[in-house]
Write a structure and sequence with these properties.
single chain; 242 residues; two-stranded antiparallel sheet
Length: 242
């Protein structure tokens, strides 16, 4: 797999369809893969947290965020297409629907987790939701949870705990998990449950989903501060190479 390094984070350069095909092949071969859907916020967390950076160094990182694509263009890196978490989940669930794959849903609130599972069962009846658990559990419950996941033997494990908690959790238990494809998907369960609406298609085409989310959820403004910091860091790297 070819990679493009953006501010120290190595991204897969595969386009969306090629990424889906690659992950399907990995799942069928039983090739265990930790997928991280990374946007500028994720990159900036990695710059400030060596432990998080080491997790990304071992993961299959895809560019979730148009800012990553723009940065790649500025830095002359061979990365040209977003691979968003919500679309990746949909594509893999379509494959699960066709192949009869087993899926485990971990994370979000109890209600959101339940509604997301109901939505997936309705839209992808050929897939098997073999287990689910919300993200509210104690450290003492983690081993029982790992045992439950392994007993269900899913082909796909979607972990929706938010960044960076989900990535740290996956990395912590990686040696125990037997699932081929494990993906940290942030707030995708909220979208599936209908508690958070995705930006309209026009906003998506204009690459303004981040602004739509900010207008809908003003409380996100602190998180959005990562964007100008990311742009500044990219410019410094670009100018530093001249």
């Amino acid at each position: 797999m070819k990679e493009a390094k953006i501010l120290g984070v190595s991204f897969s350069t595969l386009g969306f369809n090629a990424t889906v095909s690659d992950l399907v092949a990995r799942a069928e071969a039983g090739q265990r893969t930790h997928v991280v859907t990374a946007n500028p916020e994720v990159v900036m967390i990695a710059k400030e947290n060596a432990g998080f950076q080491s997790i990304l160094d071992q993961a299959y990182v895809v560019p979730d965020g148009i800012g990553i694509v723009y940065a790649a263009k500025m830095l002359d890196k061979p990365l040209h297409e977003r691979v968003t978490g919500v679309e990746l989940v949909d594509a893999l669930m379509q494959e699960a629907n066709t192949q009869g794959w087993k899926v485990f849903l971990l994370g979000a609130s109890p209600d959101v987790n339940r509604m997301a599972a109901a939505r997936l069962e309705k839209d992808f009846p050929g897939a098997k939701i073999v287990g689910r658990r919300d993200g509210y559990f104690s450290a003492d419950e983690e081993q029982l949870l790992i045992n439950e996941i392994n007993a269900a033997s899913p082909d796909l494990l979607f972990v929706a705990m938010g960044v960076p908690r989900q990535e740290f959790w996956i990395a912590k238990h990686w040696s125990q998990l037997n699932t081929p494809i494990v993906i940290g998907i942030g707030g995708v369960f909220d979208v599936l449950a209908g508690t958070v609406k995705r930006a309209p298609v026009l906003w998506q085409k204009l690459h303004l989903e981040w602004l739509y989310r900010l207008l809908r959820q003003p409380s996100r403004w602190k998180r959005q501060l990562a964007i100008p910091r990311f742009v500044g860091a990219v410019l410094i790297e670009k100018w530093g190479k001249r």
